[in-house]
Amino acid sequence: MIGKLAKMELADMVPKEWFEDQDTSSFWLRIYTTLPVPQNRIDEYFKDAICTYEVNSQPIKLAILGLYEGFELFEVKNGVIHIHHEDGKMVIPVKLDKISFPRSSYIFFFAPYDIDGHEGDENQTKANLDQLEAILSTYLGSNTLHSLIYEGVHRLTESCQWHNHGQAVQVLNRCDGPFLFKNNWENCVELTSTINALADQEKKKRIELSLQYYQKGKNIFRSEEKFFFYWTAVTIVTADATTMEINKNLQNIYSQGRSFVENDLAWLWAVGCRNDFFKRGVRPNFHANRERYFQLLFLDLLRHELELAAQGHLLSYI
Predict the structure, then answer these.
(1) Which one, 24, 115, 176, 316, has least CB within 10 Å?
(2) Cβ contacts of 250 within 8 Å, gap of 6 or more
(3) φ, ψ for residue 139 (rounded to 5)?
C-alpha cells in the first residue's frame, strides 16, 4: 500500500482476514525510515512495490506511507536499571515516551501477533520480520529500510489502542558474577598493560579487534548473535586460527593432550556448536552457563596469545 496520511487508525491498515475475534487480537508494527525518498515522490519511487509477503507461514504487510506533521506513537523504555540502596533488590524503572514523526516517508511492517486470544510468539515474530528486512535489502539496498525507528504491539479494538513490549532485561545469573576478588582486578590491569606494551602492531590490532567482538557478544541479547560474536572473538584472538590450531593452543595452555582438550575442556562440544550454526543453520541454545564457557575460553586463549602465565580458567569453570 502506498499513500499519504496525516492521522490514521493503525488498526484500519491491518487485513481483517488475519483474525476472527478482533477484541482478543493484536498486530506487530515496525516503522523504518526510507532514504532518500521525498514524500511527494512516494508513488514514483514505489510504483512497483509488492506489499504482501509470507515468512514462515506468517503474513507480513508492507505499507509505504508519507506522514504529515502530528503523527505520534508511544514507546515504553527502561530507565536506569539499578540496585536499591537499602534492600538490595533490583529495580527496573519504566518510562513512557512519545515519538513525534517528522513529515517524511516511512515503510511500515504489519504482522499478526495475538490471534483470537492465542498469545503470539515474540521471538519468532521478530525473526520473521528480521528475515523480511534482510531479503528486501539484498535487492533494494540498505537505504530502502534505512533505520528501524519504532517497534511495538497494537490492539485492534478501541478499548486498548496499543501496548508495547518494553526493552528486554536479561535475568541475573550467578555465573555472570560479580567476581570482585583482588587478584581479578590485578589480572585486568596486567591484561591492559600487556596489550598497551605490544610492539607488534599487527598483533595488537588483532587482539583489540577480538576484544571488540567479545564486547559485542557480551551486550547483545539474542543467543545466536551472542554465539556469532564470541566465536568470532575466539578465532580472531588466535593467530592463524583454525579449530585445530585452537586445540593445539589449549593443549599448550594445559600441558595436556588432544583427548583432554576435546573431552575435559568440552572442545568437541564447542566445535559442534560452531558446525551446527555456521554449516547447518542450527541456532545454538546459548544460555548463561554456556556464554560463560566461551568467555573463559577466550580469556585462556588471550593470555596465551599475550604470553602470560596460564591460569586454567576454563578447566576451573567446567
Answers:
(1) 316
(2) 261, 265, 267, 300, 301, 314
(3) -95, -35
Cis bond before residue 178 (omega within 30° of 0) = yes
Please name the residues in contact with 317: beta carbons below 8 A apart, sequence gap of 6 or more.
292, 293, 296
Is the Cα dihedral 111, 117, 122, 127 positive or negative?
negative
Which pLDDT value is given to residue 140? 87
Give the cell for residue 3. 499513500
DSSP string covering 229-289, please?
HHHHHHHHHSTT--HHHHHHHHHHHHT--HHIIIIIT-HHHHHHHHHHHHHH-PPP---HH
Peptide bond into 59 cis (omega under 30): no
Query: What b-and-e string marks burial along 63-76, b requiring 16 or more CB atoms within 10 Å of the CB?
Result: bbbbbeeebebebe
Give the residue among 186, 180, 176 at the shortest CA–CA distance from 218. 176
Q: How many residues would you count in the chain? A: 318
CA 32 to chain centre: 17
Q: Where are the domains of the chain?
A: 2-160, 174-317
pLDDT tens, position by position, 179-221: 767 888 899 889 999 998 999 999 999 999 999 999 998 888 7
Q: Inform me whether the pLDDT recorded for 77 exceeds 80.
A: no
Helix 288-305 / helix 267-280 crossing angle, nearest 10 deg = 110
The more confidently predicted of residues 200 and 36 is 200
* Residue found by looking up cell 607488534 in the block: 200
Q: pLDDT tier at 6 (50, 70, 90 boundaries)? A: very low
- CA distance to 32, 267, 301, per residue, from 217 (Å): 25, 19, 17
Secondary structure E strands in 158-230: none
Residue 119's nearest CA partner among 29, 26, 222 is 26
